[in-house]
Amino acid sequence: MIQYFKNIYSAIATIFIGMKITFKHLFVPAVTIQYPDVKPKLPDRERNRLYVNFDDCIGCDQCARACPVECITVDTVKGLPTEDLGKTSQGKKKALWVTSFTIDFAKCCYCQLCVFPCPTECIYMTDIYEFSEYERSNLIYNFSILTPKEAEEKKANYARFEAEKAAEKAAKAAAATPPANASKEQ
C-alpha cells in the first residue's frame, strides 16, 4: 500500500517538474528566424564550403596531401620555358599548369586541414553552408580554369617538349662518344 502512494507522489512530482519548465518558457517571447530570408549568425570560426581562388593556385598539391579523406585531386603539368603562366597575388611566379582541381564535397568532412598548408592561401572556407543537391555527382566541384581540351593540349605540349629534349640529349651524347670502330683500327 505504501508503494502505491509513493508511485502516485512520484507521478505528480514528475508532472510538476515538467510543468514548471513549460510555464517558464510559456511567458518568454519566442525567437523565430524567418530562415530562407534571414540567415542565422554563424560563429567566427565556422567551417563551411571550400573555395579555391584559382588565380593564386600554384598546383603544389599540399592541400590534397593534407586532406584526410582524399576528396581533393590536383593534376598538374609543367609549363614550357617559353610560356608565361603569370604570378600569384603575392608575387610568386607560377611554374605549373593546373589541369584539374576538383573537390568532392560528398566526401569532405569540413575539417579545414587543407587550408593551412597552402603557401599562397588560395584555398579557404567560405560562409556558404547551403549546398544540398539531388544528385551526388553534382557535389564534385571543378575549380580548374582550363577546359579538358586545353588541359590535354598542355600535357601534349609538355610531352613533346620532353621528347625533343631527350632526343637533343641523345644526339649530344652520340656526338661526344667516338665511334667504336675508329679506336680498333688505329
Structure description:
This protein has 186 residues and is α+β, with helices and mostly antiparallel strands. The chain has a domain of 117 residues: Alpha-Beta Plaits (2-Layer Sandwich). It contains 4 helices and 5 strands, in the order αβαββββαα. A 3-stranded antiparallel beta sheet has the order 2-3-5. A two-stranded antiparallel sheet has the order 1-4. The radius of gyration is 32 Å and the shape is elongated. The protein starts with a helix and ends with a helix. 10% of the residues are buried. The model has no long low-confidence stretch (mean pLDDT 87).
Question: What would you say about this model in short?
Answer:
35% of the residues lie in helices and 13% in strands.
Please outline the major beta sheet.
Answer: 3 strands, antiparallel
What percentage of the residues does DSSP assign to strands (E)?
A: 5-15%
The CATH topology name of the domain at 50-166 reads Alpha-Beta Plaits
Helix-and-strand structural type:
alpha+beta
- The CATH C-level name of the domain at 50-166 is Alpha Beta
CATH architecture of the domain at 50-166: 2-Layer Sandwich
User: Helical stretch count?
Assistant: 4
Q: What radius of gyration results from the CA coordinates? A: 32 Å
Average pLDDT works out at: 87
